[in-house]
Write a structure and sequence with these properties.
It is a single chain. With 141 residues, this protein is an all-alpha fold. The chain is built from 7 helices and no strands. The protein is globular, with a radius of gyration of 15 Å. The relative contact order is 0.23. The structure holds zinc ion. The site of zinc ion (ZN) has 6 residues, from α2 and α4. Keywords: Membrane, Transmembrane, Transmembrane helix.
């Protein structure tokens, strides 16, 4: 799944958490649950995709900032959001530097194994747009 929905879902579960640590952990859990949903994504395997991955992340962060600018507890929101993208950040050495970090390989293997349900772009992006609409509503209510 793309970074923007991971950020917003993480922020949503984070906003329901009791403290920033739990918000971060709930964000991590949300990442893996969201990756189980059929979706479309790209791997940052060339400079253009790396640029798009960074754009996706910063677009999502800017959107989250705008949506939650009046949040009563921004620490919970942002801790959850960072947890929501943390599993993908841990894969950065592999995709950006083409380095396998031994301690992270089991996580990368698990992460890849749960994403079995790749779908065509129109359906895979639709699931993420629906996710953005629902989480945007929740975060701004
Ligand atoms: Zn993922």
């Amino acid at each position: 799944m793309l970074s923007t929905p991971h950020l917003l879902v993480g922020a949503t579960v984070g906003s329901l958490s009791a403290n920033p640590l739990l918000a971060f952990l709930a964000g991590i859990a949300s990442h893996f649950i969201m990756d189980l949903i059929p979706h479309w994504e790209w791997k940052p395997s060339n400079p253009m995709y790396v640029f798009l991955a960074f754009f996706d992340f910063f677009f999502g962060a800017a959107l989250l900032f705008v949506l939650t600018i009046n949040s009563s507890d921004p620490f919970l929101v942002w801790a959850g959001a960072m947890g929501g993208v943390f599993p993908d950040i841990l894969q950065a050495p592999y995709y950006l530097l083409h380095r396998k970090v031994k301690v992270l390989e089991p996580l990368r293997s698990f992460h890849g194994s749960i994403q079995r349900y790749k779908v065509p772009i129109y359906a895979g992006v639709l699931t993420q747009i629906v996710t953005l609409i629902i989480t945007s509503w929740f975060l701004t209510r």
